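Input sequence (118 aa), recorded before submission:
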Amino acid sequence: MRRDRRWSAGIPIAALAAIGVLTLPAATRSTDPAPRRHTIEIQGMKFHPEALEVRRGDTVVWINRDMVPHTATSTRKSGWDTGSLAQGDSGQYVAHHRGEDPYFCQLHPVMLGKLLVR
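Predicted structure, token format:
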């Protein structure tokens, strides 16, 4: 009988230990890094840098350093657009969709850029 009591008394302790082990990874799991802010300068009729890797949730800011207006406009159907940016103006976009997101200037279609969203 005593052997059975010890064994049955150990079940709650073993169960609690197992629950602790199962929940430990969730409690100690690292979180995603905080969203970052990235800057792309428009200068010399180009986006600098032309390609930029960002994470979902990051903010991308375009600053127009040229004397003429520009846009940064996604080529995706559900895309985004900074609108027309005069010299010194800026526009921004928060990256939501993973994958490659090419963009261009609507006023100067030869100006191309690309966001790589991870």
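Checked by second reader. The domain at 37-117 is CATH 2.60.40.420 (Immunoglobulin-like).
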